[in-house]
Amino acid sequence: MQLSEPGLLILISLADGPKHGYAMMEDVERLAGVKMGPGTLYGALARLERVRLIEPLPASDRRRPYRLTSNGAKALEAELAQLQRVAAVGLRRLATT
Amino acid sequence: VNGRWLVRLYPRAWRERYGEELLALLEQLPASPRVLLDALFGAADAHLHPRLVPAARPAVVEAPAVAAPVEPEPAVVARRRPILRDEFEPWIDQIMREAAERGLFDNLEGQGKPLRLEEDEAAGDWAMAFRMLRNAGETLPWIRLGHEIDAERRKLAAQLADASERLDRLRAEPAAYERERVRLRERYLGAAVALDKKLIEHGALVPAYTLERGRLPARVAEARFDGACPELG
Q1: Which residue of A61, B78, B87, B218 sits 20 to 30 Å from the alpha carbon of B176, by its own alpha carbon?
Q2: pTM of the predicted structure, to 2 decimals
Q3: Beta carbons within 10 angstroms of residue B43's beta carbon
Q4: CB < 8 Å from B in window 23-62 of A
Q5: Looking at beta carbons, which pairs linking B150-153 to residues 24 or more positions away fall under 8 Å?
Q6: Which residue has better confidence, A63 or B71?
Q7: Which chain B residue has the Cα nearest residue A51?
Q8: Alpha-carbon distance B117 to B115, whole Å?
Q9: pLDDT tens across B27-42, in order?
Q10: For the purposes of burial, counting CB atoms within 10 Å of the CB of B121, is it exposed (0-12), middle (13-18) or buried (19 or more)?
Q11: Is the reported ipTM for this assembly greater than 0.90?
């Protein structure tokens, strides 16, 4: 499955433990400098949940944390490895010109 | 943001699953245009992709002590289908109406000021027409016709009041009353037909049906006259 950019950022954000929406937004901004809006966030969350890369945990104080499923961890790993390969090629090409 | 109205813009199934937590999130965010727009787009997205909401499933209550063997789960991909204009127009209308009710469009630049049609670059083909009208001391044709219609309606009402008064004075002479009544009725109905013609013309000119002035059918004019000036009997 092709991950969208918000989807990828969410998976990365959940890689070190469950988080609720606001915590993900803060984390993503800190880590990638991307301000993700609430609509974008929940659109991506719904898609990730639909394909079971993440799963909801019981809500506390109306805020619901999500966590990576094992499939989600695998998908994230594969995606990051792919990005790394692409990045490596790009950097190599730049170095030789 | 007090996001209750924003959350209401999402489809029902979506709200039932995510509404409460999205609301809690919105409450933590500032009411900036970026946040509002993003939430609006989210609502649009949810309407365009109704299969986005996962099947109802209880949240995981506790982590299993031993990781269960993971079965590869088939990815469910939303089936694409063409989007019909009729499907999203109603909720675009809803979004615009609710935003207007929230005052999102209040205090915009130029609000309450007269439109300067002749200087409107976006008027395109109309720009020259507006300029010519203005130079001729004229206004838009349907506006001018609208004024004429208003004046004729007042004249018609005055004519009816006048006829009723005149006939009242003839009540003692039935023959004269009837003669005069037929004459006044013909005159009134003739004027009503002329007004109705203008109403038809106006209806054909106005750019939006909400600006139409309605019609004055002969039946209505007759009933009005006969109500104000009944036959003796």
Answers
A1: B218
A2: 0.48
A3: 25
A4: 25, 35, 37-43, 45-47, 49-52, 55-59, 61-62
A5: B152/B191, B152/B194, B152/B195, B152/B198, B153/B195
A6: A63
A7: B75
A8: 6
A9: 999 888 888 889 999 9
A10: exposed
A11: no
Report which residue type is found at A9: L
Residue with tokens 């929230």: B102
**Phi, psi of B19, deg, nearest 5:** -55, -50
To the nearest whole Å, the CA of A25 is away from the closest chain B CA by 10
Q: pLDDT tens digits for B149-189?
A: 999 999 999 999 999 999 999 988 999 999 999 999 999 99
**Residue B85 is encoded by which pair of tokens?**
């204009």
Task: Tell me what the pLDDT averaged over chain B comes to.
Answer: 79
Q: Which residues of B touch A57 (CB under 8 A)?
A: 59-60
Query: Token digits for B77?
Result: 């991909």
pLDDT tens digits along B64-75: 455 555 555 555
CA A92 distance to own-chain centroid: 27
A1 touching chain B per CB within 8 A = yes
Q: Looking up tokens 């984390």, which residue turns up?
A: A27
